[in-house]
Structures are given as C-alpha cells and as structure tokens.
Specification:
There is one protein chain. This protein is an all-alpha fold and 119 residues long. The protein is built from six helices and no strands. It has helices at residues 2-7, 11-24, 28-41, 45-58, 63-75, 89-116. It is flat and about 40 Å long.
Length: 119
C-alpha cells in the first residue's frame, strides 16, 4: 500500500502507510529503505538519509541500503557517514557515484512529473 501511494505521488498517504508498516513488519530495514526512496523522490533528502541509515543499521548486509544512504547524503549536502578528513580516492569515487545516482533519481522523478501533464 505504501509503495503504491508513493508511486502515484500520494505523499501524505504513503507516509502514513510506511509508518504503519514499519511498526507492524518483521522486515523494518526494507520498509525504512522504501520510505527513504519515497522521501528522496519528494526532495526530502536529509530525512531520506536518516531512514537509509536506519535500514543500514538493521541490515548492513544489503548494499542497496548503503548506496541509497550515500545518494541521499550527497543530495542533502551531507558528508558520507564514514568519511574522514582528508577523503581518500575510494571515498571520492563513492561520493561521485552517489552524486551521479542522486541526479539520475531526480531526473527520473522529473520525467514522472512531466508525464503527468501530458494528455
């Protein structure tokens, strides 16, 4: 239900459904990740980063959760969670990839908005 509401841009309903699902599920990492994707599509990158961090803390074995967190943190202008000064080559490459993915997500969301206006 939450994923459907998010897909059709019913943001208030999707938020409520994700919060309910989070309380009821035995797979909270997946719900936190999906809710984060929804918030990122709404341009709420900082909130999304927090949910992706929650997903990582509950299931660190899923690389998608960490990639999503990196993308959201980059979009929000936040440092990567495990970044240290100075940033090494590996961190720089991860950040560049996260920024690229964030741009792709934004372009995808813009395309959806554009198609809504078509007859």
């Amino acid at each position: 239900m939450a994923d459907f509401c998010s897909a059709v841009d019913k943001w208030a309903r999707s938020g409520s459904a994700y919060e309910t699902a989070f309380r009821l599920t035995d797979r909270p990492a997946r719900i936190a990740n999906n809710y984060g994707v929804s918030l990122l599509r709404q341009g709420r990158a900082k909130e999304a980063a927090n949910l992706f961090a929650e997903a990582v803390s509950r299931d660190g074995s899923n690389p998608r959760y960490r990639n999503n967190e990196d993308s959201a943190r980059a979009k929000a202008g936040l440092p990567l969670r495990d970044a240290v000064e100075p940033v090494g080559e590996d961190q720089a490459l991860r950040l560049a990839d996260a920024v690229r993915r964030a741009g792709q997500m934004q372009a995808f969301a813009a395309g959806i908005e554009e198609k809504k206006g078509e007859p």
